[in-house]
Amino acid sequence: MAIEFFLHMLPPTSTHQMKKVRVVKGKPVFYEPAELKAVRSKLTAHLSRHVPDEKYTSAVRLVTKWCFPISGKHQDGEYKTSKPDTDNLQKMLKDVMTDLGFWKDDALVASEIIEKFWAMIPGIYISIESLE
């Protein structure tokens, strides 16, 4: 089973790394600030249209291409080498995909290809394929 789709949107630049911590009764409590909650909500809204009928239950390859709007002297298709880091972008995306039921657990993602580009059409290309 394989699926692929493009989320036509401005890719979020706030990442999972922006979680905050506060101390309650002497113990750390982690929480998402409003900006991060907004990112989660945006990804949920866009991804919800693409949830497969059946969850993946075995190893998958996840390919993501983050397409950021062109700025400065960059050109369409040029690799983006500035922040945010690909691993930070990917964490929130996979968490939301897990919550929506793309797979039983994001630990099933055994292979990942993550790229980020400057692009005329901003968004996130996603491909998931079974490895079995």
TrEMBL record:
InterPro entries: Endonuclease_RusA-like, RusA-like_sf. GO terms for biological process: DNA recombination; DNA repair. It comes from the Bacteria. One of its GO terms (molecular function) is magnesium ion binding. Pfam families: RusA. This is RusA family crossover junction endodeoxyribonuclease. It comes from Alkalibaculum sporogenes.
